[in-house]
C-alpha cells in the first residue's frame, strides 16, 4: 500500500446541514449532493488541496455500506488537522469556523511544543484542529 489518502469520509446525521456548514460556512468547493437516485447513495464531495477529497455521507448509509452497526459518535477517536502558516491565520480560521456555526472546544493558544492551535467541532461533532507548527512550511492561505 502506498502512503496516500485520497478520500476522507465523515459520517453525518443531517447531510444537507453538513453540506451547508462546509460549503457555505467554510467555503469549501463542492458540486453539492450527488447520488440521491441510489438507495444509501447520497453523498457530497469537497475538493481539497493535493488531490484529497472530503466526503460527507449519512452515518446510517455508511454503516449500511460497511456492514457495521451505527455506533454512538465519539469526537475523540481522531481529529482532522488544518495547518496554516502563522499564529494570526489560526486566529482568523478559528473566528471563521465559529461564525459558521462550529463549536470551539479549545480556543487558539500557545502549545506546549512551541506551536499555536485551537480545536473546533463541526455540526456532527467531528473534531478539527487549526494549527500553526513553526517547524512546517505551509502556504499563507488559510
UniProtKB/TrEMBL annotation:
Residue stretches making up the VOC domain: 4-133
PROSITE patterns, A to Z: VOC
Signal peptide segment: none
UniProt protein name: VOC family protein
Pfam families named among the record's database cross-references: Glyoxalase
Organism encoding this protein: Paenibacillus aurantius
PANTHER family: BLR2520 PROTEIN
Amino acid at each position: 500500500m502506498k502512503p496516500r489518502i485520497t478520500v476522507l469520509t465523515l459520517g453525518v446525521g443531517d447531510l444537507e446541514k453538513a453540506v451547508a456548514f462546509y460549503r457555505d460556512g467554510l467555503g469549501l468547493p463542492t458540486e453539492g449532493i450527488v447520488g440521491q437516485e441510489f438507495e444509501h447513495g447520497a453523498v457530497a464531495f469537497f475538493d481539497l488541496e493535493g488531490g484529497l477529497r472530503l466526503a460527507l455521507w449519512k452515518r446510517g448509509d455508511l454503516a449500511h455500506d460497511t456492514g457495521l452497526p451505527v455506533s454512538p459518535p465519539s469526537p475523540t477517536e481522531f481529529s482532522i488537522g488544518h495547518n496554516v502558516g502563522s499564529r494570526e491565520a489560526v486566529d482568523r480560521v478559528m473566528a471563521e469556523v465559529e461564525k459558521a456555526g462550529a463549536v470551539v472546544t479549545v480556543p487558539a493558544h500557545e502549545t506546549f511544543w512551541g506551536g499555536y492551535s485551537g480545536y473546533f467541532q463541526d455540526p456532527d461533532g467531528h473534531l478539527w484542529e487549526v494549527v500553526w507548527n513553526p517547524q512546517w512550511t505551509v502556504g499563507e492561505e488559510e
